[in-house]
Amino acid sequence: MFFYNELKPLLHQISSNSPDLTSIQLSHKKITDKHLIQISKALTTNTNICEIWLTNNLITEGGCGYLMGVLEGNRGVGEVYLGGNKIGDMGAQSVANLLQRNQIITDLGIDENSISDAGAKSLLDALSHNSTLQTLKTNGNNIQTEGIVDGINEVLKVNRENARKKLLEEHPEYEMSKIKKEVKKKKVRRSRDGTNKRSSSSSREKDRKSSSSNGDRQDKDKPATDAQITIAEETLADNFLKDRKKSLEEEKSTTLMSKFKNGLGLGSGGGDGKKKKEEGLKSGRDGSFC
């Protein structure tokens, strides 16, 4: 059993909004509703906690409902995991109420919580008012209607895609870093499998030259080597970055040129300004400047 003297230091950290504490890790601690209510009260003024782990405890709909009520006004917590408890359909309804009012949480786990179709239906209805939740774990419950689960997954898919688009609009460099990470992962996997040894930059350059000069003599049906695949992936990533940078520069240049033309009176409706400028130049040639 988790005793209050063990919980007290944590409650103090949470309520004092300690910047050193960003995650509550209380899984497999036999946390009861009473404990959770104390934790929830401490969370009321906290802005640094980002994730809450309360899996495999003794939490029912009462404790769940209290926590969800507090999280409605919280702007810091983005992940909540309550899998392996006993919140049931009433707890699922509390979660649904939260999803209608909270646009911060992105990941939520309520798997293995004795939730039936009724609770799942309330979650699906709530998701029509939520655009931020991207992951909802519901496996291990008593949901019998596949259509409800499919509906939930479809909404989450749309939310993930919209979140990705928004991220790329605000931070276009993110896509590039993502591509490079994927390339790095593939290289590491090949290295672990013993199918590809990390080559130096000089050897990769030799592979490029060799591939270019001997391309006509190679058998067209011969599969590409791992080194050639890695080079192709890196080239693809570099080209993506160059194209993205060029596109942003062109967009910026177009905007600046438009502002410049408008300043000279050469934009739309700026014909008179252009005419006056030409007349002024002509007057200058005639020696009639004042």
Question: What CATH architecture of the largest domain do you see?
Answer: Alpha-Beta Horseshoe
Number of strands: 5
Pattern of helices and strands? HEHEHEHEHEHHHHH
Estimate what percentage of residues fall within beta strands.
Answer: 5-15%
Low-confidence stretches: 195-200, 215-224, 280-290
Write down the overall geometry. Answer: globular
Q: What is the number of independent domains? A: 2
Largest sheet: 5 strands, parallel
Strand order of the largest sheet: 1-2-3-4-5
Q: Would you identify the CATH H-level superfamily of the largest domain? A: Ribonuclease Inhibitor
Structure description:
The protein has two domains: 4-170, Ribonuclease Inhibitor (Leucine-rich repeat, LRR (right-handed beta-alpha superhelix), Alpha-Beta Horseshoe); 173-214 and 221-263, no CATH class. The chain has ten helices and five strands, in the order H-E-H-E-H-E-H-E-H-E-H-H-H-H-H. With 290 residues, it is mostly helical. Helices cover 59% and strands 5% of the residues. A five-stranded parallel beta sheet has the order 1-2-3-4-5. Helix 3 runs parallel beside helix 4, helix 5 runs parallel beside helix 6 and helix 7 (173-193) runs antiparallel to helix 9.
Brief rundown of the structure:
The chain is mainly alpha-helical and 290 residues long. It has 10 helices and 5 strands, in the order H-E-H-E-H-E-H-E-H-E-H-H-H-H-H. Residues 195-200, 215-224 and 280-290 have low confidence and may be disordered.
